[in-house]
């Protein structure tokens, strides 16, 4: 799947149980239930860590991004710890949607972004390969919205999640 086609919705929720209930009901996507920031091309494991690194003043992103899966539930077909299973292209692990929980450190780094640092962070994040074609004003707006969402989550003692839809 081309990452350009990936829709990502960052949202806040009390816990993974609340997220799983919404996903299991499948009546509304998380973006319509939770306080959400919609973003295209902002993969939480490859692109977002570049913003977090810039916000923390680091040169390079952390080696491993937030990949704790919340949805779908059940064993992953490619679990390296367990026995291999045949991959079914109808399996929700293959078709999505998928939801991952971001670390609270990521939430706090985003919550700590100050408006006066937006131009500098935008410039640094725009150098990320996957974002080279995105307008800087769009990135700056997205950074601002993500930081507001993260501050709300931290204040409410909630966590940040990302729903990925093909």
Which keywords apply here?
Hypothetical protein yfbM fold; alpha+beta; five-stranded antiparallel sheet
Description:
The protein is of the alpha+beta class and 166 residues long. The protein has one domain: Hypothetical protein yfbM fold. The chain has 7 helices and 5 strands, in the order βααβαβαβαααβ. It has a 5-stranded antiparallel sheet, with helices on both faces.
Helix and strand topology:
Layout: E1 7-13, H1 16-25, H2 30-33, E2 36-40, H3 48-56, E3 68-71, H4 92-95, E4 98-101, H5 104-111, H6 118-125, H7 136-155, E5 159-165
Q: In brief, what are we looking at here?
A:
This protein is α+β, with helices and mostly antiparallel strands and 166 residues long. It has helices spanning 16-25, 30-33, 48-56, 92-95, 104-111, 118-125, 136-155; strands at 7-13, 36-40, 68-71, 98-101, 159-165. It contains 7 helices and 5 strands.
